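TICKET: design request
STATUS: open
ATTACHED STRUCTURE:
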């Protein structure tokens, strides 16, 4: 079979080249821009400006005119020239030094003064990582907020619990949702910690000793330290790493991607639960009016959003293996085999986290609950679960515990045979009603079989959990979550 024709030579064809679906199909514009070349190289120029300003403030012969020229051209980037320079020089940083110098001829001689490539490369990465967390945190808080509203709404609705995916004691729909929320609150805390622990690489030189800057300032250690402090402050960081090699420690990348991978695990678990509940027809994700579930089976309502989250969460979880291996093979002050790998894994981790959070928000804002289906499943299992309560009630009415236990055992096996061998409904309660032995408690059976009496403190746990552990952590994000948070509990 003939392959599709390629675009004519020299003709731009966006559909004739591979594009990562993380950007072309899924990611938000803000996160896509955060890892864009415009953001990256625009940040490089700002870092060169910060360095020049600080060096001027500390006495190096840099003029106001040079500073102003740099300021006027921060976003005037000739990407075509930069690409041609990189092809010629085989060095991306020097290609952009030359490109910046081309539009800043007066400042050309002081751009990148005393610095090494990692001054712009690593410091930009740290800025981008910090900005990435700042984009993700409000989204994560929004998801938690939406699920908290769902948990509150269904705090009292009994549902069948599952352990080993086998019927277990009852819980409530809201309490089960709180298990999801608790994991996401841990992720929120870990995101904040990872972001707040990020430091600036700062002004450290080729092997981290600051030797070039010490030479620039003629051996004045105080000025070198002040240079580092000033640039760190201009870049918006409170602290810089005191010691680095040529790069900041690649263990920082491990910490960053570990918390993102942990979010992936949380969302995979949540969306797996939703997929299983959809199969039981108890809860479904949103389904659009004209949405098609299957090209062949027209009746299908597939949980495709939850499936997408699980699919991408798996990708997110394995990305942490990249920085683990990279950190382990960095020789001495640095080797360059980290670079190409980091270009891929850091961006993809944040883009993927952004996508699955946006998708989970969409799911959480449109979850559909079917109480009658839930109640029917409870009634299929509740008779067996209620037998201990029935035995206790008979004993209180004067019956013998052992005699009652034997009666229940025989009737339960008969009911189980109807369910398993005949495909019928669980008729244990009907058998108990028909047996004269249980006449002393006939009037109590309805109360003994009330589902809410089997959910323990689930609804109280929901109320306390939301009040004490969820809503307080969301307050800092309230203005960024789109709607006012209702603290009704």
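STATUS: resolved
RESOLUTION: sequence designed for all positions
ATTACHED SEQUENCE:
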């Amino acid at each position: 079979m003939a392959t599709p024709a390629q675009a004519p030579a020299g003709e731009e064809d966006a559909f004739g080249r591979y594009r990562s679906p993380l950007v072309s199909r899924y990611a938000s514009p803000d996160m896509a821009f955060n890892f864009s070349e415009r953001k990256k190289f625009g940040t490089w120029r700002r870092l060169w400006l910060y360095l020049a300003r600080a060096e001027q403030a500390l006495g190096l012969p840099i003029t106001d005119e040079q500073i102003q020229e740099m300021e006027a051209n921060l976003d005037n980037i000739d990407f075509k020239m930069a690409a041609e320079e990189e092809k010629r020089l085989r060095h991306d940083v020097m290609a952009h030094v030359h490109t910046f110098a081309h539009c800043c001829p007066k400042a050309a001689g002081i751009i990148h003064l005393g610095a090494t490539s990692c001054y712009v490369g690593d410091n930009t990465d740290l800025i981008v990582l910090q900005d990435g967390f700042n984009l993700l945190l409000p989204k994560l808080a929004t998801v938690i907020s939406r699920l908290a509203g769902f948990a509150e709404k269904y705090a009292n609705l009994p549902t069948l619990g599952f352990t080993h995916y086998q019927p277990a004691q009852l819980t409530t729909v809201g309490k089960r949702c709180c298990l999801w929320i608790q994991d996401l609150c841990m992720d929120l805390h870990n995101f904040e910690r990872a972001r707040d622990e990020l430091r600036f690489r700062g002004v450290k030189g080729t092997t981290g000793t600051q030797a070039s800057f010490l030479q620039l300032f003629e051996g004045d250690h105080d000025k070198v330290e002040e240079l580092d402090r000033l640039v760190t402050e201009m870049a918006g960081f409170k602290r810089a790493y005191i010691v680095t090699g040529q790069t900041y420690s690649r263990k920082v990348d491990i910490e960053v991607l570990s918390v993102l991978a942990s979010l992936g695990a949380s969302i995979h678990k949540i969306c797996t639960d939703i997929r299983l509940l959809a199969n039981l027809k108890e809860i479904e994700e949103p389904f659009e009016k004209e949405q098609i579930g299957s090209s062949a089976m027209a009746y299908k309502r597939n949980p495709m959003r939850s499936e997408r989250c699980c699919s991408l969460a798996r990708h997110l979880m394995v990305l942490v293996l990249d920085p683990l291996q990279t950190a382990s093979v960095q020789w001495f002050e640095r080797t360059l085999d980290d670079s190409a790998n980091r270009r891929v894994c850091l961006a993809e981790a944040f883009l993927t986290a952004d996508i699955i959070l946006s998708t989970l928000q969409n799911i959480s804002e449109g979850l559909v609950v079917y109480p009658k289906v839930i109640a029917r499943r409870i009634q299929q299992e509740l008779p067996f679960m209620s037998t201990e309560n029935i035995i206790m009630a008979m004993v209180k009415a004067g019956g013998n515990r052992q005699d009652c236990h034997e009666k229940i055992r025989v009737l339960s096996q008969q009911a189980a045979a109807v369910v398993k061998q005949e495909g019928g409904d669980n008729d244990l309660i009907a058998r108990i009603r028909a047996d004269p032995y249980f006449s002393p408690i006939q009037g109590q059976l309805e109360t003994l079989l009330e589902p809410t009496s089997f959910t323990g403190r689930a609804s109280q746990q929901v109320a306390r959990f939301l009040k004490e552990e969820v809503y307080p952590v969301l307050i800092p994000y309230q203005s960024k979550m789109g709607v006012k948070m209702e603290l009704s509990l």
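CLOSING REMARK: The beta strands are 158-163, 166-172, 283-284, 368-369. The chain is about 60% helix and 5% strand.
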